[in-house]
Design goal:
rod-shaped, 7 helices, about 240 residues, three-stranded mixed beta sheet
Length: about 240
């Protein structure tokens, strides 16, 4: 494996590519005979053409990735690595196409027509791979879609609870409790009444009229409760101040 550092232009000789492609066992030169035994039927094995005659076709597979050396995805990394694999395509003629010309143009009835085929080293490049990056717009769309779906789920659950449970008017009860009609006068009146009741209850608790509640005054309130012993009253720890 040959590694080229970042920021440089990779350069490699065709001969080195042919050597790394494992074109044939012990391959050293284009003058070496090919092995077309699977694709042709020559009179004898010694009459196989040479690679210089048939040409050579190489498949250059380029794989891109920005993963680290441990194979972990790096979505914020801008370092992209390219790995090139050289694969020889065996048993084919690497032809660029024929050139037709006339050494002797038609004159009357005879002519000389020549088709010249050009073979050489052909390379086909194929690029593939995955480059990972963090897409903020996709993340934002995902968050928005999640919130919208959750809102839809809440609407579906509300519809089922408040409209689809006919048992003893359960849905109607919950709907009425959730959508209670109020106005400013009613709210302030309820607050004032609750405050007045709290003051009255505090005055009833404060037997000594000290402006605060003692432990004995709080325990005394449980004296009229049946099945509550003195130890139970004493263990009840309530602290309050006014």
């Amino acid at each position: 494996m040959k590694i080229f550092p970042a920021g440089t232009s990779p350069k490699i000789k065709i001969q080195d590519l042919l050597l790394k492609s494992n074109l044939a066992p012990g391959w050293t030169s284009l003058n070496q005979l090919t092995d077309f035994s699977e694709r042709s039927n020559p009179p004898s094995p010694n009459q196989f053409p040479a690679y210089r005659t048939t040409g050579v076709m190489l498949q250059m597979n380029i794989k891109y990735s920005n993963k680290d050396t441990d194979g972990q995805v790096q979505p914020f990394s801008k370092d992209v690595y390219a790995e090139v694999e050289v694969v020889p395509i065996k048993g084919v003629w690497a032809v660029w196409g024929a050139i037709t010309f006339f050494p002797e143009y038609p004159n009357g009835g005879s002519y000389h027509k020549v088709h010249r085929y050009r073979q050489g080293v052909l390379m086909e490049f194929s690029a593939r791979g995955l480059v990972y990056r963090f897409d903020w717009f996709f993340f934002l769309n995902l968050v928005i879609a999640t919130l919208v779906l959750l809102r839809v789920c809440g609407a579906v659950v509300d519809f089922i609870i408040f409209y689809c449970i006919p048992y003893r008017g359960f849905s109607h009860l919950l709907y009425t409790k959730r959508n209670e009609r109020v106005d400013q006068k009613t709210v302030f009146a309820s607050l004032g009444l609750s405050a007045a009741i709290s003051v009255q209850q505090f005055n009833a608790f404060d037997v000594g009229k000290n402006g605060y509640l003692t432990f004995s005054e709080l325990v005394r309130m449980f004296g009229g409760v049946e099945d509550v012993t003195y130890e139970d009253r004493k263990s009840t720890r309530l602290n309050s101040s006014h």
